[in-house]
Specification:
- The protein is mainly α.
- Helices cover 42% and strands 7% of the residues.
């Protein structure tokens, strides 16, 4: 009997590389990285480990593990997403300086030319240069007060806990969450 050979193709639709890349492309490309990471972990790695444990005849599939790219973006305290939310960063210059300070030396992070107000990330799909212009502004999707106030008035404690900024007695002492 002749053994059948199959080819499967999975397209992680959504990666963007434009002439000018900003916060929107950063968010889209991060999402694509997480989808890629999830697929690698839950399909390729786990399945291959299972085949090995069960002693099945199979051919190993080498794959690119993008965990370090995801950590560059979402690592608590030092990932780019965490840095964007630091309350003391109020200007594009300060944000770029902080990103460069925390991410320099990472194998997937590159500093762009001086005075370019941008940085580059080596994603699994390609290298992308991101302009930090308006990053902070675009990341501040603050829920209007009348909506959070209405939701805080819910009789369900869970809903109230999700919208503490709607509490009329709460002091606005810190930067709102984004």
């Amino acid at each position: 009997t002749q053994r059948e050979k199959n080819l499967a193709l999975l397209d992680f639709y959504g990666f963007e590389l434009l002439d000018h890349n900003s916060f929107e492309q950063f968010a889209i490309n991060y999402s694509a990285e997480k989808i890629h990471q999830n697929f690698i972990r839950n399909v390729l790695r786990v399945e291959q480990e299972l085949y090995a444990r069960e002693g099945l005849e199979w051919s190993r599939i080498d794959y690119f593990d993008n965990e370090s790219i995801c950590e560059l973006i979402d690592k608590p305290n030092y990932g780019i997403l965490s840095l964007i939310n630091e309350p003391h960063l109020t200007t594009n210059d300060a944000l770029l300086q902080r990103i460069q300070q925390c991410c320099a030396g990472h194998p997937n992070f590159m500093i762009s030319q001086p005075n370019s107000m941008s940085f580059r990330i080596r994603h699994y799909a390609n290298v992308v240069q991101y302009s930090v212009q308006r990053f902070l502004e675009k990341n501040s999707d603050i829920l209007p007060k009348y909506i959070s106030s209405g939701l805080y008035q819910s009789k369900l404690p869970l809903v109230q806990s999700l919208f503490p900024e709607g509490n009329p007695r709460r002091q606005a002492t810190k930067k709102p969450t984004t």
